[in-house]
Amino acid sequence: MKTFDFVDSTLRDGEQTAGVVFSPEEQMEIARLLDRVGIRWIEAGVPAMGSAEREFLSELHRAGLSAQLISWNRMRREDVDFALSCGFRYIHLSIPLSDIHIQYKFQKDRAWVLNQIEDVVGYAASFGVSVFLGGEDAARADREFFLRAAETAEKAGASRIRYADTIGCMDPFRVRGEMEYLSARCPLPIEFHGHNDFGLAAANTLAAYKGGAAFVSVTSTGIGERAGNACLEEIVTAMECLYHYDCELHPEHLPALRQAVSKAANRENNGKHFCTKMN
Questions:
Q1: Among 1, 169, 178, 222, which is least packed by CB within 10 angstroms?
Q2: Domain that holds residue 180
Q3: What CATH number did the domain enclosing 110 receive?
Q4: Is 209 contained in some domain?
Q5: Of 228, 264, 270, which Cα lies nearest the Cα of 22?
Q6: What are the backbone dihedrals phi and psi of residue 13, each rounded to the nearest 5 degrees, phi first?
Q7: Distant-in-sequence, close-in-space partners of 103: CB < 8 Å, separation ≥ 6
Q8: Does residue 273 belong to any structural domain of this protein?
Q9: What is the pLDDT of residues 141-182, one digit of tens each?
């Protein structure tokens, strides 16, 4: 079993890039190219966005991809129902873990967060699907509360937790320290999700790997909300060339993926070039 892997969010977080809207045809092409690259986990979209999104996500399940498709959802039972209606067997449930988001986004407290996790994760797990907890703004959360949320989720049936640097405020030194501390104590495998607000998403993602993260979130060309996410092509190249880690992917297909995403996002002159031959 692999101890480290990629979760690609081009179709979800990537489409949160300002001015970017993928057509269903573009989404399907990107998904097929990700599958050709060998990506095992694709965060495919948000079923609660509406009927058109659910129609595409249902079609994507019928496309015969080898990759596992993950739905992104709020910590709500109705979001779980939407995801199930599309055929998802892997359901990501997101909720804030930092006090600033808990207080100012929801006007709630930590006890409410834990109760929501217990209720909604348990509800989703009762359908026999795999459930992943998304720790929104975990970078600004109390680390002991992060662990408590993980324990609550694990008891309710979750099998993974995301540590999200939602506002892109971390540096590689802190990321590695946090991952080392948390991964040694967390009952669930940790996925690191970085943003590029200070241009550190790639460095932070590599530091997360060094610190013991079991998964990392990426997007093709690094597109994503605000300044973007960790770039799939950069991380694969760094893992293979710098760390000699066999990602078990097919990097010869990365140029086609990058071209398709850049064209769909109207960013064909983004100036990024990546090594595609690993020695």
A1: 1
A2: 5-264
A3: 3.20.20.70
A4: yes
A5: 264
A6: -70, -35
A7: 109
A8: no
A9: 999 999 999 999 999 999 999 999 999 999 999 999 999 999
Q: 16: which 2 tokens?
A: 């949160």
Instruction: Kindly report, residue by residue over 237-250, the tens digit of the pLDDT.
Output: 999 999 999 999 99
Question: Per the structure, how many domains does the chain have?
Answer: 1
Closest to 130 (Cα-Cα) out of 39, 68, 46: 68
pTM passes above 0.90: yes
Between CA 7 and CA 194 the distance in angstroms is: 12
Beta bridge partners of 135: 95, 163
Q: Is residue 275 part of a domain?
A: no
Does a structural domain hold residue 60? Answer: yes
Q: Copy the structure tokens of residue 111.
A: 């006890």
